[in-house]
Amino acid sequence: MENLTILVVDDDPVIRRLLEQRLVKQHYQVAVAGDGVQAEALLQERPFDVVLTDLMMPGGVGGIEVLEIAKKLHPHSEVVLITAHSSVGTAVEAMKKGAADYLEKPINFDELFLRLDKIANLKTILRSAQDLEQAMTVTETAASQTIQDLEMAVSRKQQAIDAVEDLLSDRSLPEDERIYRALGILAESGH
C-alpha cells in the first residue's frame, strides 16, 4: 500500500512541526501550512489524500473553511479536524459537512495513526472497487461485442438455411440441380 499524502494545517508552529516529524517518521508524505490561506494555495496546486487541520485558526480561513475548500477542489481528499475539547460540537458539525474524523487535543499519536490506517485501507478498497468496475466495463463491452458478432453469424446462417429450404422445395428445378445449388449456398455460408 502506498503512503498517504498529508497536508498538515495548524497555526501553532510547535504542533505543526511535531505533526510533520511524527508523520514523516511513519513514512507519510507531508506538506505543511501555517494557516488556512496557505492551505488553500497548496490545495489549489495538488490534491492530498488527507488534510489534517486545526479547527480554530486566526484569520478568515479556519478549519471548517479548509474542509470546504478541500472537499470542493478534491472530493476524494479526507479531512481530519484537530479540536480542543470545547469544540467537539463544532467538529461533529464539520463531520456532517464531509470531514472524515476529528481528534481532540492533545493529540494521541497512536489514535491518529490508527485513523490514518483506516483512511488508507478505505482508499485501497475504493481503488480496488474502481479497478474491478473498470474490468467489468471492459468485460461487458467485450461480451456485448461477442454477442453482437454471434447474432450476426446466426442471422447469416438462418438466411442460408432459409435459402436452402426455398431452393429444395422449388420443384421447377431438377432434384440434382437443387442439391448442387443448396450445397453451394451452404459452402458460401461457411459450412
From TrEMBL:
Annotated SMART domains: REC
Gene3D superfamilies: 3.40.50.2300
Modified residues (4-aspartylphosphate): 54
SUPFAM superfamilies: CheY-like (SSF52172)
Domain Response regulatory stretches: 5-120
Keywords: DNA-binding, Phosphoprotein, Transcription, Transcription regulation, Two-component regulatory system
Protein name: Response regulatory domain-containing protein
Organism: Desulfofustis limnaeus
